[in-house]
From TrEMBL:
GTP binds at D90, T91, P92, G93, H94, N144, K145, M146, D147. Belongs to the TRAFAC class translation factor GTPase superfamily. Classic translation factor GTPase family. PrfC subfamily. It comes from the Bacteria. Pfam families: EF-G_D2 (PF22042), GTP_EFTU (PF00009), RF3_C (PF16658). It is found in: Cytoplasm. NCBIfam families: prfC (TIGR00503), PRK00741.1 (NF001964), small_GTP (TIGR00231). The lineage of its organism: Bacteria, Pseudomonadati, Pseudomonadota, Alphaproteobacteria, Rhodobacterales. This is Peptide chain release factor 3. Increases the formation of ribosomal termination complexes and stimulates activities of RF-1 and RF-2. It binds guanine nucleotides and has strong preference for UGA stop codons. It may interact directly with the ribosome. The stimulation of RF-1 and RF-2 is significantly reduced by GTP and GDP, but not by GMP.
């Protein structure tokens, strides 16, 4: 809770909505699994992956993900831990899927940064961290794989401080590393935690001690290691800042826990950290005002749309972050963009890996609303107020390629598939005024592979991407007369996006400058508002 915030209703105050950011392989999946285990959402570690296997067709885990070990889709999972309700929003790991990741990070109040104790801050960690920083998101750090040979503790902390320019406050301190790793000294609670190597799903033994001079320490930690621990902790107290909740909530300081996700070690301490220190659901920005979570009317914003989660129904699920209020199933909400009422009769909460009907939800929760395409990224739902949530980024397509169905008879089919992905926000799709085929625009090259693979899997439609004569796209808007004049002479460069809006395609910046000069009343933009 930030100092200037009022006390929230208990149901809202107990919610923690966060994402995990990590470089691939640092242990995000393993940590997620342990969260679910300790949240009582699964019985046994290993189920997250196993479920993924069984549900591959839901497009959660498509074949390419398994081949390349990358995760394409984000989903939300809710579970209880102690008195808290955690909403964990999964972020896709690969750098090429950053569009989705960026949008996901607008739906959370905090992030857990997982780093590998032997590798430290890696490229993807840094990128994701920067996105969090843009929003001043509070970040908790988990230094994983301490059961393996790790780098020196001070070195790891230094690297985070210097690379990411954030203060790091140790919440725990590792005792030994690799084969010698015993456990941690819990600095925030003055406790000793010992890792159990025999049972990976068991929580570590906690030994209450009274500070570093407690004789009980010597019963559990060999003399040499104890001397080193005392020395290091003393140095840490001198050199490193102590945990300061305000600095953490403002995004200037990250507390760091050391552990081993696979051994269930340090995970509960991290969960306690999120629970105890927060943050609670935060106010959400709109064009006109900030919406506070404790406001009674229900409001929410779509931050992600996912198609084909269930191949039997060609439905889509819009993921909504509730910004305020207490939502109940069956509620009629205003779909602000279309100004039409919408009865939300079958919302889903993603409890663990299963969809369940959401009878109710509170500010901070993520709910899914199945729909046939009415709900788009950035759309607001309210109880009547005309709100436009801001902060959901739109991306300029930086790479353009033509796309064709391998079977030319399937062009209509392909159009349908492409429109669906365009509405999901997975790519920009342009239909040129002249000629056949489509042009697809993405931010990262790997997105083309993901698209090709999804179109083949979800629509049984092999496609080919090919070089396009264009390299840039600009949305064009302006008064009708000027627009008509412009369209008439530039037909070969004009396409329409999935909303029917006009896009100018070219390979020369010079062209764009010229049009700006020749048609001063037209506005050319590299991104399109999501609304
Ligand atoms: P992700 O790519 O970030 O989701 O990483 P995963 O959770 O899939 O983990 C990557 C690899 O590291 C897997 O082989 C895990 O079994 C392993 N791993 C995860 N946590 C630990 C840990 O605490 N210690 C060790 N030694 N290996 C771990």
């Amino acid at each position: 809770m930030l100092d200037n915030r009022p006390t929230l209703p208990p149901e809202i105050a107990r919610r923690r909505t966060f994402a995990i950011i990590a470089h691939p392989d640092a242990g995000k999946t393993t940590l997620t699994e342990k969260f679910l285990l300790f949240g009582g959402a699964i019985q046994m570690a290993g189920q997250v992956r196993a479920k993924g296997e069984a549900r591959r067709t839901r497009s959660d885990f498509i074949k390419m993900e398994q081949d390349r070990g990358i995760s394409v889709s984000a989903s939300a999972m809710s579970f209880d831990y102690r008195e808290f309700r955690f909403n964990l929003v999964d972020t896709p790991g690969h750098s090429d899927f950053s569009e989705d990741t960026y949008r996901t990070l607008t739906a959370v109040d905090a992030a857990i940064m997982v780093i590998d104790g032997a590798k430290g801050v890696e490229s993807q960690t840094r990128k994701l961290f920067e996105v969090c920083r843009l929003r001043d998101l509070p970040i908790l750090t988990f230094c994983n794989k301490m059961d393996r040979e790790a780098r020196d503790t001070f070195e790891i902390i230094d690297e985070i401080q210097e690379n990411l320019a954030i203060d790091v406050a140790p919440a725990s301190w590792p005792i030994g590393s690799g084969r010698e790793f015993l456990g941690c000294y819990d600095i925030l609670n003055d406790r000793l935690e010992l890792m159990d190597r025999a049972d990976r799903n068991r929580v570590a033994e906690t030994i209450e001690i009274k500070g570093l001079d407690d004789p009980k320490l010597a019963q559990h930690v060999p003399a040499g290691m104890l001397a080193q621990l005392r020395e290091e902790l003393e140095m840490a107290r001198e050199l490193l800042p102590a945990f300061d909740r305000k600095a953490f909530l403002e995004g200037h300081m990250t507390p760091i826990w050391f552990g081993s996700a696979i051994n269930s070690f340090g995970v509960k301490e991290l969960m306690d950290g999120i629970g105890n220190y927060g943050p609670e659901p935060q106010p959400q920005p709109t064009a006109s005002r900030k919406v506070a979570p404790e406001e009674t009317p229900v409001t929410g914003v779509v931050f992600k749309v996912q198609a084909n989660m269930d191949p039997k129904h060609r439905d889509r699920v819009a993921f909504i972050r509730l910004a305020s209020g207490h939502f109940e199933r069956g509620m009629k909400l205003l779909h602000v963009r279309s100004k039409k009422p919408m009865a939300v009769s079958n919302p889903v909460l993603f409890l663990a890996a299963d969809r369940e009907l959401a009878e109710e939800a509170w500010a901070g929760d993520i709910i899914g609303i199945p729909n046939h395409g009415q709900l788009r990224i950035g759309d607001a739902l309210t109880e009547g107020e005309d709100l436009r949530f801001t902060g959901i980024p739109s991306f300029a397509p930086e790479l353009l390629r033509g796309v064709r169905a391998a079977d030319p008879m399937k062009a209509k089919h392909l159009e349908k598939a492409l429109m669906q992905f365009a509405e999901e926000g997975a790519a920009k799709v342009f239909k040129p005024m002249i000629g056949s085929g489509f042009i697809v625009g993405v931010v990262g090259a790997l997105q083309f592979d993901v698209l090709a693979s999804r179109i083949e899997q979800e629509y049984a439609l092999p496609v080919r991407f090919e070089a396009s004569q264009f390299t840039s796209a600009r949305w064009v808007a302006g008064p009708k007369a000027e627009m008509d004049k412009f369209l008439n002479v530039n037909k070969g460069h004009i396409a329409h996006d999935h909303d029917g809006d006009v896009v100018y395609l070219t390979r020369l910046q010079w062209d764009i400058d010229r049009i700006q000069r020749d048609y001063p009343e037209l506005k050319l933009t590299a991104t399109k508002e999501m609304l």
